[in-house]
Amino acid sequence: MDLLWKLLISNAMIAGCLFVMVLLVRRWMKNPAVLHLLLLLVLIKLITPAVWYPRIDLLTAKTKTAPNHPAIASPQGAETESTPESQAAAKSGLSSFAALRKGLRKTTTAADPTSEDIPSPGMTKQPSPMVESFTEPAWSARLTSYFAGLEWTWSSLLLLIWGTGTMVCFFVGAVRIICFQRLLKQAQPAPAELQQRARTLGTQIGLKSVPQVDLISGAISPLLWAGFSRARIILPAQLLQELNDAEVETLLLHELAHYRRGDHWVRLLELLTTGLYWWYPVVWWVRREIRVIEETCCDAWVIQAVPDKRRAYAEVLVKATGFVSEAQRIPAATGMGTQRMLEQRLTSIMCDSLKHRISRRGKFLLVTVALLLLSLAPLPGTSQAETKVAEKPNQLPSVEEILGGYRNNLQRLLPLGMTYRIMAQENMNCITRDRLILEALRNIQKADRSEIKIDGKIMSEDEYQMRVTYSYSSQEMFLDSQLTPEVVQKRLSETVVDQRYFWTDGRSFHQRRPYQLQQKNTTLEQGPVWPAENLNQHYDAIELISWSNQNQPPLRRWYGRKKNHQIPQGEIGNDLKQIHNLKTTAPLGLKQYHWAEELSEYSLDACLTKPPHRYRVVGRENRDGKALILVEYLNKPHEQSPEKRWRTRAWVDPAQGYLPLRIEWGYVDQENQLAWGLSQHAEVLQVKQVDGSFYPTRIRFQEYTTGTPKKQEQSSQTNEIKIFTKNLENLPAVPTVPGRSTTWDVLDIHPHQQIGPETLALRFPEETVYDNKIDGRTYTTGTEQPLPEDPEPPEMVHLFSQAPPLQVTEWLDGNTHQLKDFEGKVVVLLFLEDVLNYDFSGMSPEMEKYVGEIKKMLLRLHQKYADKEIIFLEIYPPGTSKVKIREFHQNRGFKTLAAIDQRQAEGGATNQKYHGIHVAPTFFIEPQGTRRLQPGNI
Q1: CA distance 543 to 511
Q2: Cα separation of 521 and 59, whole Å?
Q3: Which of 34, 198, 323, 672 has the smallest count of CB within 10 Å of its CB?
Q4: pLDDT digit string (tens) for 598-655?
Q5: CA 875 to chain centre
Q6: How many CB atoms lie within 10 A of CB 314?
Q7: CA neighbor of 634 nearest in space, from 406, 405, 399
Q8: Is the CB of residue 411 less than 8 Å from the CB of residue 99?
Q9: Is the peptide bond before 531 cis (omega within 30 degrees of 0)?
Q10: How do strand 232-236 and strand 212-216 relate by DSSP bridges?
């Protein structure tokens, strides 16, 4: 806004100075054509954007003195305190008068730091319903809401008045043009003789084509009319009857001279500049002078063409001006001039030798002046003395200015559409951490139960069995698989973890996400979503989510990956928490989302949209050559450690919309020093200027992980590891070091982008099976009745109860086995299904790699527990071919006991007894025959 004002005022000042110079030199300049071009430069300058912006220290920038806010130690629960006015504004978001009153108050007094105390996500606040139903406001309310989001100042009010006056001027001009166009419908083409005389005269003054001559009844002045159509010469029929041939000839020459000079285009330029600068007196003065000089130039054209008809031409001017009783206001029309300048024109016609052409030297000088003035726009700068004053601590911007500037900078871009991707990369600190944890897990499994304490207590037998036999073993195998050379190399390289298209207007949103991520960019725009059948044709591999208050319910989700209509392809609901992978990561400047989603703590919006009273402006810091402002936010004390508080630090750039270029999160002690190191930090790597605002198009989020204690760096065989692993209640204080990093990168961005209502509606194709998350039923598009519910699965056994018998059709070895046959041993039930769906002889490289990982995992499992009295039993789904099982055993390189489950309902009887209708990968059964552990992947 400030830059726009400076450019407009700069153009107006240069145009005014040029006009004054023209008035000064006109006494010595005898060629009216040169004066005419100089005056045209004044108008053109007003609407020409400059390409060179030199800053001058002529105008001083006023600075507001903002008090230095000290750190405020607010009592717990202060986040919920707010005035009734702020609560009402927070609920509606539509109080434009409150925003206007607040903006005006800011120009005279310091703002109250508690005036916008709105509870933010994660803070103590009153419980509210999970879903809030409200209707979409009318257009007037939406317009009011838009202006309410702006921080009103005197400059914005003046700009509003300016724009209103411009619209009025254009409206009045349009009405006059339309009225005159209706009048011209009565005009009739002039006789062929008059048309031929006009063509002859046009050829005489160098015209290749001449405008049509029309006659009209009425007391109007002869004029050249163009408007927004082809130019025409309009002559009053009654006036022509009073003129002789010589007078008609000079009258036609006058109007043809206007056409030859292009004065009809000057009328359009006048219309544009007058509408934009209606308040500027220079514009009206220039318009008047241009009209006077135009008539003088046309007089010169006529005298030069027919010098022997000066008297006839003078008489035409007298008759034409006398024919019209009063001046007419017709936009875009070029007439014969007014009565006020008639005497001066007659004197010049009869006595002077007028010029209407410009010499080559004059043209060169005019082009040089035009290039210099049209490309120049000096901006008022700040003097060095004032810069020093502004750098004083008491001249820092207030918290309200920083928070408001950040929000306004981003919200000006709404509605906003963009495509972004997220890249993730680990480093050796992550690998070292996993190696330490792996070694600790192995030491725990070797230790006696009495040596392992949690919260100062020795684990019970059941807890020990659950943790050591299952949980720790599973973690050990997972970490072991993550530390192979191939996997480590992949973890250390940057990979794409997410890519999305995201659109929002601040109240609704629409996003798209591919199921298969690739290193190269995936095209998420596959065509329109309406008609709905396009979803099946173009978006079978792309998930679409829309949230709009126009939808009932507001959430609609399409994930039609499978064409089997018995499997739902979409869902509707009112709770986004059911979509675990949905996160709004784009900075929007919103204090809270309107679509039932909480702001992420590690985000730019959460950093600069909290209640102002907990912020404090620390001071200025120079980082990477930029003068940034350091702002701190202190949250309520830590629950388990009241002496610790959560602190957010942000270094904002006032020159780039108060964007935070660096943010740090972590707990601090009472001395405001980091207690446990940084939790995470973010850096804005790239900022793009978009439509007058600044937007962060590349952000890197750096996570922190536990480092290696110095004593452990010397030797991994010391007793430190044993202490670290066996006595879990006294974990040593380890340093935090940078770990995994993610980079949020905008691929393309489109501000003020509208989206079709059919996209937000996201209608499903006919016969689409979808889930209704509100009533928990499944429906088909086009029917109101839900589909029949699935039958109740058989009751499954609970943990720590006796393991049920195996209900199998047959064993692969041809014998019969029961659990009692393995009494005294640990039995591991493996329910395998996916591995039998692959053709091992013709697998793709990707599938062969996936199956290879499964083979390695099973082989390690068998090799590790083969000598520990552990029996592995594989249970395959009903109907599985024994040939397929033997092919799988042969492919993986070893055999185990295997059986085919007995069919029951839609699944296997044994699997349903152990875990309902879903396939459970793994169960452990202890020697006493009791099912001890929960199912899980191993």
Answers
A1: 8
A2: 49
A3: 672
A4: 888 899 999 998 888 889 999 999 988 889 999 999 887 877 778 888 999 999 999 9
A5: 51
A6: 20
A7: 399
A8: no
A9: yes
A10: parallel
List the structure tokens of 929.
């025959």
- pLDDT value at residue 560: 73
Tokens 């040593």 sit at which residue?
A: 732
Distance CA 119, CA 885 (A): 60
Please state the rounded mean pLDDT for residues 514-524.
70
Instruction: Assess contact for 917 and 906: CB atoms under 8 A.
Output: yes
What does each C-alpha distance from 285 to 278, 279, 339, 663 come to in angstroms? Answer: 12, 12, 18, 55
Q: Radius of gyration of the chain from Cα atoms? A: 41
Joined together, the tokens standing for residue 27 give 């006494």
Work out the angle at residue 516's Cα, subtended by the Cα atoms of residues 513 and 520, and round it to the nearest 5 degrees: 90
* Cis peptide preceding 119, ω within 30 of 0: no
For 137-174, write each residue's pLDDT tens digit: 444 544 444 454 444 566 677 878 888 999 999 999 88
> Residue 291 corresponds to which tokens in the numbers above?
């009209």
Confidence at residue 80, expressed as pLDDT on a 0 to 100 scale = 33
Binning the chain into helix, strand and coil, the percentages to the nearest 5 are 40, 20, 40
The answer to whether 768 and 781 have CB atoms below 8 angstroms apart is yes
Q: Could you tell me which of 247, 263, 236, 249 has the C-alpha nearest to residue 199? A: 249
Enclosing H/E stretch for 194: helix 192-204
Q: How far is CA 201 from CA 286, 556, 641, 794, 927, in A?
A: 31, 73, 98, 104, 118
Q: Which residue has the tokens 């130019």?
A: 231
What does the block give as tokens for 522? 């995936």
Distance (Å, whole) CA 426 – CA 136 = 45
- What is the DSSP pairing of strand 693-706 with strand 736-751? antiparallel
**CA distances, 223 to each of 99, 230, 235, 289 (Å):** 52, 14, 7, 18
Q: Are 300 and 201 in contact (CB under 8 A)?
A: no
Residues 6+ apart with CB under 8 A from 380: 6, 10, 55, 56, 57, 58, 59, 60, 61
Taking alpha carbons only, the member of 501, 498, 404, 409 closest to residue 753 is: 501
Other CB atoms within a 10 A radius of the CB of residue 782 amount to 10
CA distance 250 to 255: 9
Question: Which residues are CB-contacts of 925 (< 8 A; sequence separation ≥ 6)?
Answer: 803, 819, 826, 827, 828, 829, 931, 932
**What's the CA gap between 132 and 124, in Å, rounded?**
19
- More confidently predicted of 3 and 530: 530
Judge contact between 197 and 252, C-beta under 8 A: yes
Average pLDDT score over residue span 711-720: 40
Residue 837's Cβ-side half-sphere holds a number of Cα atoms within 13 Å equal to 6
Mean pLDDT value across residues 464-482: 76
Return the half-sphere exposure (C-beta side, CA atoms, 13 A cut-off) of residue 369. 20
Burial code of 818-830, b = ≥16 C-beta within 10 A, e = fewer?
Answer: ebeebeeebbbbb
Buried/exposed code over 472-496 (b: 16+ C-beta within 10 A; e: otherwise): bbbebbebbebeeeeebeebeeeeb
What does the DSSP 8-state code read for residue 797? P
For the chain, count helices (H), then strands (E): 28, 33
Q: Which of 313-317, 468-472, 819-823 has the lowest mean pLDDT?
A: 468-472
Tokens of 246: 């010589």
Which tokens in the block code for residue 180? 């005159």
- Tell me the H-state helices in 306-398: 310-323, 342-351, 360-374, 384-390
Identify the CA nearest to 651 among candidates 696, 688, 682.
682
Please answer whether residues 97 and 126 qualify as being in contact, where contact means their C-beta atoms are separated by less than 8 angstroms: no
SS3 450: helix
Give whole-number Cα distances, 44 to 47, 78, 122, in Å.
Answer: 6, 58, 56
Q: Which residues contact 287 (CB under 8 A, 6 or more apart)?
A: 270, 274
Angle, CA of 852, 854 and 855, to the nearest 5°? 65
In terms of DSSP H, where are the helices of 818-895? 845-865, 882-892
